[in-house]
Specification:
Rossmann fold, D-amino Acid Aminotransferase, Chain A, domain 1, 4-stranded antiparallel sheet, 6-stranded antiparallel sheet, 345 residues, Dna Ligase, domain 1, alpha+beta
């Protein structure tokens, strides 16, 4: 890094936008920030303290967030608020909208891309229109009767517009009409959801791909990750459930592992082209995580495209970066630099 760039970076004041640990958090099992969330913020602060040329200010009090940002606007916001404004996931885009209204540059997706990214059926339609392989899928409006049921079994049923696998349980994989009806009613009545998807159950490997950058400057692809189901009880479906991410009491919590993926050149080419195509088409910015799963034919099909993937030091993005020899603080710096370059800071 030459001296001119270093001197310019020394002027960059970065505001870190986080969820509010003082408020309820519905995504958590206990409806509040737990040890994992608090430890993640601690590790983040420690990592960012290692970066030279930045001054970091933290914004995690949502009661005063608007006034705080207006009185001390940073030159760039590192937007890691994946909990939503006031920890309401549906208001994730409102944090971005606030930054837009205040004229504060920020990392990651804008409100439009966030809305698109939360609608799995829409993502699938856009992907298929661009020639990207996707599972066969049926959209279910849970407010209508009778509920649409699968036409073949086994089938995978999941919420259409939730994040973090919320609503996905071992019962998501249904083997008959009775199980399908029960699970759709659970999504509607217990979780108060209004939309669901019925998909092929893909039996092959499940991959996660992380990329950092932007179309105009090019992308850095992190080494891909594969979900390792080998330690999972054979009686349980080989899927990523909400419990695997949020519930230490779930049998998925301890059994699932992640490993560096070994993907054929042809499939890797398909995946890279799909990621770049989606990133451009959906208007993503700075970084993204895209999930795929192979069908019986061995070809990867798109599952999800995440605009604001988990930023924790033990999350998938950090794990993949580590396989590339990139430490956690360096991953954060790559994201900051991608946004800074995009804004011309």
């Amino acid at each position: 890094m030459n001296q001119e760039i270093k001197n310019r970076k020394e002027l960059l004041q970065v505001g870190v936008i986080l969820g509010d640990p003082r408020l309820p958090y519905a995504y958590s099992i206990d409806n509040k920030f737990g040890e994992d969330e608090l430890e993640a913020e601690k590790q983040l602060r420690s990592a960012l303290a290692k970066l030279e040329g930045y001054r970091f200010t933290y914004f995690d009090n949502h009661e005063s967030l608007i006034d705080d940002l207006r009185s001390e606007p940073p030159q760039l916001a590192l937007n890691l608020c994946d909990t939503g404004f006031r920890n309401i996931l549906e208001q994730e885009l409102n944090v971005q909208a606030l930054l837009e209204m205040l004229g504060i540059p920020y990392t990651g997706a804008d409100p439009r891309a966030t809305v698109l990214g939360l609608d799995k059926a829409l993502i699938r339609a856009l992907a298929r229109e661009r020639g990207i392989l996707v599972p066969n899928e049926t959209f279910v409006d849970l407010t209508l009767e009778p509920l649409i049921l699968p036409t073949y079994y086994p089938s995978m049923i999941k919420p259409n517009n939730t994040a973090g696998s919320f609503g996905v349980t071992r019962d998501s994989l249904v083997q008959n009409k009775k199980e399908a009806q029960q699970y759709l009613v659970y999504l509607r009545d217990e979780l108060q959801l209004t939309q669901a998807l019925i998909q092929d159950f893909l039996t092959g490997e499940e991959y996660t791909v992380g990329l950092i950058g932007n179309p105009e400057g090019g992308f850095t692809f992190l080494p891909p990750l594969e979900v390792d189901f080998s330690d999972l009880d054979p009686s349980l479906p080989r899927i990523l459930t909400y419990g695997s991410k949020a519930d230490p009491e779930s049998p998925y919590w301890e059994s699932l592992r992640f490993k560096k993926a070994d993907i054929s050149d042809s499939n890797w080419g398909r995946i890279v082209n799909s990621c770049v195509t989606l990133f451009r088409r959906l208007g993503y910015r700075d970084y993204a995580r895209v999930d795929f799963r192979c069908g019986a034919d061995g070809l990867p099909r798109l599952l999800e495209a995440n605009t604001n993937p988990t930023w924790y030091a033990n999350g998938k993005m950090a794990l993949m970066a580590g396989w590339q020899g990139c430490e956690y603080h360096q991953l954060m710096e790559m994201i900051i630099e991608a946004a800074a370059a995009r804004y011309g800071l």
